[in-house]
Each structure stands twice: as structure tokens, then as C-alpha cells.
Amino acid sequence: MSTRVLVSVSVLTILFAVAVLGWKQYTEQSAAQWESFAEALTEGVGSDGPETTPVEPTVDVVGATPSTPQLSAPDGAQTPGVSARVNGLVDDAKAALAEGRTGDAVMSLESALAIEPEHPVLMANLAYALYKRSEDLRAELRFDHAEGDLVRAVELAPEQPGYAAHLGNLALRRYRLDEAHDVLAPALELHPDNPDLWLLFADTLTLQGDLPGAIEAYTSAVSFATDKQRDVAQTLLDRARRQWDVEQDYLTDTTSSFVIRSPNDPSSPLWGPQLAGVLERARAEVGNALGTHPQQRATVILYDRETFRDVTGTHDWVGGLFDRKIRLSIRDMPLEDQRDEIESTFRHEYAHFIVSEIAPRCPAVLNEGIAQYVQHGRGVGIARLTNYLDSKGVPRTGIPEISELPDTFMQFTSQDEVSLAYLTSYAFIDHVVTMHGTIGVTGWLRELNGAPLAEAYQRANGRTLEAEERLFREQVRTER
Ligand SMILES: [Zn+2]
């Protein structure tokens, strides 16, 4: 069985890691500055990627599974009723998959299917090869192509819920919510007891703002899931309920830039209309810093500290979180006394909003680097990094490679690794701005659509990422 669990880090695992490592004790920076460690907790949505993923191909072209029929048996015997040419193409596909040449496998099976249209075994095999290729494409950030392959896989093999789950997951993580909804709803008609599909559907409804619908879907997920997935579903169900409890009576204040949701209480420090001006100013600063002004309104939801912790499942030193909505934790004190902190946190989260518009699923080095850049400002990135290195007794050469940093920092298990990843990202982005201007960063972001990180960098800045990194490392080494 293929038991590979896909993509994102489990919320529970992360919370566990946070608790064990005692990040709370690490108070070198203010609470708001630590928000950056938290928003990735939700990674856009709550649950893992599909767990019972694709897919044992219905018919195994990769290896010999004795009980399943095969077009081409291991001993080379031919499948009756299919031409030698088709058998040869399937053998080619098998060999290609075994060697990781997923594109070649797809091509061979397309040719076979052209000869034997509607052959169920070929259709199932092609669906599997497309899925494997979509995984490669996704790893290269070629999301449109990955999605195209999965759409085809779903058409070829609708009996496999895993393909729809992966397609829905991909759409969801790119915040294409209507698309995700349109994939998952019909898949659930076909597979009403599949917990992956229910979880993804619930996440989608959550992001679409349909909390009652999400609560229903999470409830279904809980009833069909087992083991750890069941715990995850239960956690998310509880969270959705708490969120609905809090937000169902919220006031919605719509401005030209925002939809602000807050308690309907003008005497509260988190009353939306009072904060609108603060947010507006911070929004303009971010837009100017990045030279880009989104037309779309951002949704901002305001909570007191305790509720924020309840609803997001984060620690109380976390000041903000972006999960397609900007969630801010506001202290119980007059606005004037916390204005700077709110603005700083908001700038960080609003940068994530902009990044998510331009390049959904942007790797963390760029996403968090930009967010910290607009949060803390220009020209101090390398100093912050070297201060940290020196205070920890880490050599200046002991920073991670930019291209080696993972897509999300939440997979790190130690506090030092996470701190270093954030600080390195900030320092590098700050360096790129110094060398190439803001356009060096925003151009990189825009080129990311369909290109890997290093390739996008070179396209935007005319210099290889490798060369830029050498310069950067030299600056870190010699910074005084
Ligand atoms: Zn962040």
C-alpha cells in the first residue's frame, strides 16, 4: 500500500512541538513579533492534506500485486485482447514510473489509451500516472499544471476518492475556494464516508465563512475518521464551534479596504470602527513599501487575547494570524497604548494577505521574509540576524541555505531552527531590497507563478539565487 501522507504539517504536531519546546519562555522579542511563528500553525486551513491518499492504482503498473489484474504480467505474458503494441507501451510506462519519469509514463499511457480507448485498466493506470506527475509538478510549484493532471485523473477514475481529495486540497491551499467546493461536493456524493473529503470540505466551508456548514462537515469527518485523523477532525470541530459561538453575534463593519468583524460593543478596545483608522494607515504603509495595492478587501477579525487563543489554538504571546482572514489579538487596554503593536502585527499579516493574492503557496523564506520586512522595516535584517547568531554563539557561517529552507517553517522541531529560519528569511529579503529595490522582491514573487524559487529569482533579478546568496552570506560574515 502506498501510505505516504501528503504535504502539510499536522496542527496537533505543531502545537505539541510548541508546548514541549516552551517557546513561551523565549521572550527576547515582544509578543507581537512572535506572531510569525503562529500563523503557519493553520497553514491556511486547519487540517492535514488528504491522509488516505491516492492511490494504489486500481491496477498496479508499478510492481506485481498478485491479486490485481495487470496488462502486462511480470513474466511478460500478454494480456488477452490487448495488442502487443499496447502491452509494450504499458511496459514503458511501468519502467518510466519506476525511474521517476512521470511525464514519460503519462505519454506512454496516453498513446496506449489512444489505441484502446475506454479500456478500464488503461484509464486507471493513466489516472495514477497523472497523479504521480501532478506530485512532481506540485513540488516544482507548477500548480496550474498539477491541477490539470488531477482534473484528468478524477475524470478517468472517479471511483478513487484520493484523486478528488488531492485536487480539492490543491485548490484549497491556493485559496481557490469555489473550485475546491466544486470538486469536493460531487466527490462526497460518490464517497459519502470518506473522512479526507469531509475534512477538506469543512476547511473549505470555514474559509468561505460558512461556519454552520463547516461544523456539520467536521462532524461527518469525525464520524468516519479513525486514530490521529479523528483527533485532528475533533480538534477542528471544537475550534469551529468556539469560533461560531464568538462570531455569530459579531458586528461587520465594511470600509473601502476591509471587512472588519468585532464584538458589537463601542466601549470595547476591540470595537472595529474604532480600529479602522489604525488598520487603514498600516495598510497604506504596507502597500507603499511593496509598491502594490490589492483591490480586494481583506477580512480582519478582532478578538481579545483569550478568545484569540481559543479560536486559533495558539499561545497567548501570539498577536496575529493569517489564514486567509487576518485575525488579530487585541489587549484589554486603551488603543493609544497598543497602537504600535497592533500596527506592527497588522503589517505583518497584511503582507501575507498581499503575498497570498500574488503567489499562493509562496515558500516561507519569501513569505515570512517579506512579512517581517514590512513589519520591522528596512536595513536592519542582517543586524538582527547577526545579533542573534552572536548571542547564541552560532558562527556567522551557521545559517541555513536559502534554497534549502522548507516551504513551511513549521516542520522544524527546535526553537533555534525556527528562529534562525525566520531571521535568515528577513535578513535575505532585506538584502535583496538593498541590492535590487523592492521590485527585486515583488518581481520574484510574481515570477513564482509557475516557476521554482531559484528560476523565478533569476528571471526577476538577472542574477542567480546562488550568486545572490554568496553575496548575502559574505555580508552576514562581515557585518559588525
Ligand atoms: Zn508570518
Task: Write a brief structural summary.
The chain is mainly α.
Query: Separation of termini?
Result: 55 Å
What is the count of helical runs?
20
Strands side by side in the biggest sheet: 1-2-3-5-4
User: What are the distinct ligands in this entry?
Assistant: zinc ion
Roughly what is the average pLDDT, rounded to an integer?
Answer: 81
Describe the overall structure:
The chain has 480 residues and is mainly alpha-helical. It has three domains: 1-43 and 249-344, 3-Layer(aba) Sandwich (Glutaredoxin); 55-159, Serine Threonine Protein Phosphatase 5, Tetratricopeptide repeat; 362-478, no CATH class. The chain is built from 20 helices and five strands. It has helices spanning 11-21, 36-39, 84-98, 102-115, 120-139, 143-156, 161-173, 177-190, 195-207, 211-224, 227-247, 272-290, 305-312, 335-358, 364-376, 381-392, 415-436, 438-447, 453-461, 465-478; strands spanning 251-254, 258-262, 298-304, 320-322, 326-330. The chain has a five-stranded mixed sheet with strand order 1-2-3-5-4. Helix 8 (177-190) runs antiparallel to helix 9. The radius of gyration is 24 Å and the shape is globular. The model is unreliable at 1-49 and 51-77 (pLDDT under 50). The structure holds zinc ion. Zinc ion binds at residues 36, 39, 348, 352, 368, 371. Residues 36, 39, 348, 352, 368, 371 line the site of zinc ion (ZN).
